[in-house]
Design goal:
mainly alpha, 0% strand
């Protein structure tokens, strides 16, 4: 029970959902060229770009967790990588990866830390 409450407080102080979406987008973009979908015949430059952009997006998701105070620049870099993946890496993982990355970056950009709640002392109450 104690581990659950510590995990909950850790995720509440970070843009956790945004990081999860960016990691999922990076994995999806990187896996499309190697998946046996039959749609990708020859990976070429797009395959290499997909691996690099997917790894970059996953790294941005982890960075959102570890350094939430840098969320604005991370979100801008993630949107830029998602748009680059749309052009360079099989339509950004057949559009799903790019949409996940843009959504996660938007969540990360919009996230704000909650102010700490303090209980009033006896003197303040009355």
């Amino acid at each position: 029970m104690r581990v659950l409450s510590r995990t909950r407080s850790w995720t509440a102080r970070r843009p956790f959902v945004a990081g999860c979406l960016l990691i999922a987008a990076g994995m999806e973009i990187a896996i499309v060229p190697v998946a046996g979908t039959g749609l990708v015949i020859h990976t070429g430059v797009g395959g290499h770009a997909a691996f690099l952009l997917g790894a970059f997006l996953a790294a941005m998701g982890v960075t959102l967790w570890c350094a939430p105070e840098q969320r604005l620049i991370i979100a801008v870099l993630a949107v830029t990588a998602a748009l680059a993946a749309f052009v360079m890496a099989n339509l950004g993982g057949f559009l799903l990866g790019s949409l996940l990355a843009i959504t996660g970056a938007s969540f990360g950009y919009a996230w704000t830390e909650r102010p700490p709640t303090t209980q009033p002392s006896d003197e303040e109450v009355g």
